[in-house]
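note to self: dont lose this again. the chain is below, predicted strucutre after it. 459 aa total, dont forget to put it in the shared folder this time
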Amino acid sequence: MSKKSNGTTGPSDPFAVVRISRREFTVHFRQPKDMAGRYGFDYPRDTDRYPMEEVTEPTTGRRTRKALFKGNISNFNDIYLKDAMYSPLLHKYNYLPAWLAIFPYTTSSVYRGGSSMHKDGIQLDIELQQLIGDTSQLKNSKYTELKFVSSNPSKLTVSPSSIPIKKFIKQGYKTTVVDKTNSKSRKDYVLKRAVLVKGVRNKKPLSRHESIAVYAISANDKDLVGELMVHKNDQTYKADLVLVPVKTSTGINKKSLESIESYLKYNSFNQALIRAEIKTTEPFDLNKFDTDTHIKSYIKHAKTNSHTPESVSDGIINAYDKYGLGKHRDQNGNALSINQKGHKKTYLFLLDFDVKDLYGKAPADFSTGQFATGNVALVLKSGLDDYETLVHEVAHSMGVPHVFEPNLINQYKFYQGFSDKVMDYKWQTGIAPSNPNKLISFTRYQWYLMQKDPSVYKL
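---
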């Protein structure tokens, strides 16, 4: 049986007819672990979809195996299938594509929002997955090679253009148990850094989402078996950060400030096509204002480790509004607090003291009488060397909730403490091991939340 792809076939696609007959396997693009955070990459984790992890049930306290995604599974599928070019044709095999987001490599004369950040392209792993429960041998497959086809080769290239199936056979497979209770498993063949996806220099940015389609080739057939979606990049964004190292006693190490700037720019918000840049560093020595009784009290609580989460944020915002360099006004000329929406800067306070059970905070803005995310993030002393905390709090200020919290804008809820997502936690609920992952990845739906935040602007 064959079926046309309803007009979604890319202009360079040599296969006008996409076969959707029985598959032996599907093919997936994956990110090398040491490259996480350097570009936008979101993919459906097995643990989000299948009962692979033991979680604690809040009502009974029992540990049971569950998929980590807790919401409507159609919402989860939409994260990856929405706007995809070919993947809906493979969804009968439970296929969901990965999404890649990279900056266009252009000069400012072509597009002012371009960057050399991804000029060398992106190397990705290729994972060939036999269908769940299929015990056949790949060496007996009718297919001889995989072919990779860009939907827009004048702007987006992929190399090599093909990989022999025998390379996967030679590599061998690992068994992934997706459902231990029901004895369901899958054979996965992985080739590390097998393909290079690259934007063509000085071409106009991608004005639509593009695709790298994967076909399995046999003597008689060319069958669609996978896809990588590459996010359009004709609109990129900027976030201006003000770094405020606060001194109550020892102050902040200068070397820490330099490494923070690099991490923010190249390992975090760039995933959402946002150039997060520190516009200025404004040291704030509270001791200079200790004749102010409120600041004197703030310093005392800092030195005695007696601040509350509320007092540590309210106090520093009020102090900076009064004595700091950041002065903002709304369209009518009225003064704005640094934590109010209405200006385009995000203030990141680095504190030289700790608060019990607190690593960082992004205080909300209640100036209108209703909840709104603010423009301030705080990181306590114990979190200064943990860039995950720093990015986590800034993302809160850009409107991104925790992945595990019920929220009006968060229809994507997961069990806490299992993933590599920035907005997860390092610990799980109940008596359970800590999260072993580095929290470094933003998901596709979070890219859009940050891009829409009032403090982020278009380039």
